[in-house]
Amino acid sequence: MDYEHLKKAIKLLIEASQNLEDIVSEKSTIPANNQTVENAKETIRKAMAEISAAVNPPVTNHIPDEFLAKAESLGIPLDDIEVLVAISEHHPSQLAGVLAEIENRAENIRRRREYFLIRLPEMPIEKLGSRLPIVKATDFNWPEQPISKEYREAIKAKYKIDRLMKKRPDSRTSIFAKIQAAEEYLGQSQLGENDSDFDEEIPF
Fold first, then answer.
1. Are 1 and 55 in contact (CB under 8 A)?
2. Residue 111 · residue 85 · CB < 8 Å
3. Taking the CB of the first residue and of the last residue of the chain, which one, N or C, has fewer CB atoms within 10 A?
4. pLDDT tens-digit profile of 159-168?
5. What was the pLDDT predicted at 97?
6. Considering only CA atoms, which of 132, 59, 64 is closest in space to residue 92?
7. DSSP string of the chain?
8. Which of 92, 10, 97 is nearest to 59 (CA)?
9. CA-to-CA distance for 74 and 106, rounded, in angstroms?
10. Per-chain mean pLDDT for the chain
C-alpha cells in the first residue's frame, strides 16, 4: 500500500467536496455552472486514480518502448497519474489502437489527454505483430549445387518410382485395345448372322 498516493487522493477529494459545498451554500457568491461541476468531477477522477495507484502501483514494463515514445510525441502526459493507471490496466494493443486514432485525427482532437482516457478502454484487444508469415530474401534462394545422382537414386528406390513408370498389363492403353478388338469381333459376328438369316428367307 502506497500511502503517498492515498494522501494525494484525500487532498483531492477534500478539494472537490469543498468546491461543491461552495456552490450549494446559501452564502456562496459563486454562481453554479456546469463548468464548476465538471472541474469537481475531474478532481474526483484524479483522486480515484491515486487510490488505484495506492492499491496497485502502475507499471508500464509490459508496454513496448516505441508505444510510450509515440504517446509522448502525441502529447499524452506520461507523468499524469490517470494516464499511468490507464496504461497499466490495459493491453498494449489497446494502447496502440488509441494512439493510431489520435495520430490519424490529430488535427481534430484538441484535448488529447481526455480523448485518450475515454477511448483507451473501448479499444479491442488484438494480437500484436503481423498476421502474415514473414518472408525473407533467403527464402527464395535455390540450392547452389544440383541434387546428386546418389540422392536421386535413393529417392527413386524409396518410392519405387521405376516400378510406377513401367506399363502394367492392365494399363489404360491395353484396356482400350481390348475394347476395340471386342467391338470388331462383335461387328463381324453380327454381319455373319445377318447374311445367314437373309439366305434362309429366300424361297428358291
1. yes
2. no
3. C
4. 777 776 665 5
5. 92
6. 64
7. --HHHHHHHHHHHHHHHHHHHHHH-TT--SPP-HHHHHHHHHHHHHHHHHHHHHHS----TTS-HHHHHHHHHTT--TT-HHHHHHHHTS-HHHHHHHHHHHHHTTTT-S-HHHHHHHHGGGSPP---S-SSPPP-GGGGPPPSSPPPHHHHHHHHHHHTHHHHHSPPTT-HHHHHHHHHHHHHHHHHHHHHHHHHHHHHH---
8. 92
9. 8
10. 77
| Whole-number pLDDT of residue 197 | 52
Mean pLDDT of 47-64: 84
In one letter, which amino acid is 149? K
Q: Model's pTM, two decimal places?
A: 0.51
- Exposed, middle or buried by CB within 10 Å (0-12, 13-18, 19+), for 113? middle
What's the rounded mean pLDDT across residues 122-128?
86
> Cell 510525441 maps to which residue?
73
Q: How far apart are CA 94 and CA 120, in angstroms?
A: 6
Angstrom CA distances, 89 to 14, 49, 77, 111, 173, stand at 26, 11, 16, 21, 73
Neighbours of 102 (CB within 10 A): 20
Q: What is the pLDDT of residues 133-156, one digit of tens each?
A: 555 666 566 556 667 778 778 777
Radius of gyration for the alpha carbons in the chain, expressed in angstroms and rounded: 43
Q: How many CB atoms sit inside 10 A of residue 108's CB?
A: 8
